[in-house]
Design goal:
single chain; Aspartate Aminotransferase, domain 2; binds pyridoxal-5'-phosphate; 7-stranded mixed β-sheet; 362 residues
């Protein structure tokens, strides 16, 4: 009997490509003739080193990174990056701008302030419950960096184009849209992304840092919190989360070889998002919560006419093998997370179900 698999709309941890899961299963007891599982092998072995180096190489290729960029796989999730970014780059006398577009940006700002750093909230969309991405932002001249959240997992908004910050490096939390579309990485000083949304299991965070910023890292920081240490040790200063890195490497390989790169991935993601948003816009029953020009192609947030109907919708969807449609506990409503591994068929199945639910309850 083949295992039961549902249509997975979870926000994170989230769906992974089936072929990746099957490959993990097939080589779990004997990784590449080693006679050991990848979870039993030394991280200093040739087997693991190949995995890590392939993950780094594919990240560079998929994003067209030049040699100034260092690719790291760290622990502590995106949440530790909220603190590591200001700790490493903002010494006394320096300042940085933050754009507040939702729950995760708010947490990044909170960490910087907790550390006593001099930061400024250059723009915020809090006035309308983060339903939009701010435009025409005036950034502080001479700031050390500008921090943004490229996709707002909880509020369902996404930067369509990144802001022009001149010579000030952009730093982005891309946890929930990393590798979903191509972009000009050359404008960024640092990018970070917890793996468990769009590129693997929990336990590893991708960090891409431009080498000129490493000059700012203070000597006095604890060793594990210094980016330069992880660059000098190829993410192996201490034992890395081997299984999470391995899974992420297989997902990157899938993106590279099976999907065919980020242009192709972006086209698929656009088609998926269009299907759902068109249906919502045509319905009068469902209501999207994000402004049209700020909508996320990864997390689609919507409401039904009442909370009772939302409960019923989520329960009936579950009964039809569609999981993860409940909105984040802080906002309520519904959310369909349609990351890279959630395919067009899953999205079409959801749209058909939504139409049917509307006709029975509208
Ligand atoms: C999930 C998420 C986080 C938190 O990630 P952790 O890896 O759990 O720390 C941060 N930012 C964004 C945009 C997220 O979606």
């Amino acid at each position: 009997m083949s295992p039961k698999r549902i249509y997975n709309f979870n926000a994170g941890p989230a769906a992974l490509p089936r072929s990746v899961l099957e490959q993990i299963q097939s080589e779990f007891l004997d990784f590449k003739g080693s006679g050991m599982s990848i979870t039993e092998i030394s991280h200093r072995s040739k087997w693991f080193e190949e995995v890590l180096n392939d993950a780094v190489a594919r990240t560079k290729r998929l994003l067209n990174l030049d040699d100034r960029y260092k690719v790291l796989f760290l622990q502590g999730g995106a949440s530790l990056q909220f603190a590591m970014v200001p700790m490493n780059f903002l010494s006394d006398g320096r300042t940085a701008d933050y754009v507040n577009t939702g729950t995760w940006s708010t947490k990044a700002i909170k960490e910087a302030k907790l550390l006593g750093k001099n930061i400024k909230v250059a723009a915020s969309s809090e006035d309308r419950n983060f339903a939009y991405i701010p435009k025409n932002i005036r950034f502080t001249p001479g700031a050390t960096y500008v921090h943004i959240t490229s996709n707002n997992t909880i509020k369902g908004t996404q930067w369509a184009d990144f802001p022009d910050t001149g010579t000030v490096p952009l730093i982005a939390d891309m946890s929930s849209d990393m590798f979903s579309r191509p972009f000009d990485a050359g404008r960024f000083g640092l990018i970070y992304a917890g793996a468990q949304k769009n590129m693997g299991p929990a336990g590893v965070c991708l960090v891409i840092v431009r080498e000129d910023l490493l000059k700012l890292v203070p000597e006095t920081l604890p060793t594990m919190l210094r980016y330069i240490i992880h660059v000098e040790n190829n993410s192996m200063y201490n034992t890395p989360p081997c299984f999470s890195v391995y899974t992420a490497q297989l997902v990157l390989k899938w993106l590279d070889e099976t999907i065919g790169g980020l242009d192709k991935m972006a086209r698929i993601n656009q088609a998926k998002g269009d299907l759902i948003y068109r249906m919502i816009d045509d319905s009068g029953f469902y209501r999207g919560t994000a402004d049209a020009d700020s909508r996320s192609l990864m997390n689609i947030t919507f409401r039904l006419p009442s909370e009772e109907l939302e409960k019923k919708f989520i329960a009936e969807a579950q009964g039809n093998d569609m999981g993860g449609l409940k909105g984040h506990r802080s906002v309520g409503g519904c959310r369909a997370s349609i990351y890279n591994a959630t395919d067009l068929k899953a999205v079409q199945t959801l749209v058909d179900f939504m139409k049917q639910f509307e006709s029975q309850n509208g």
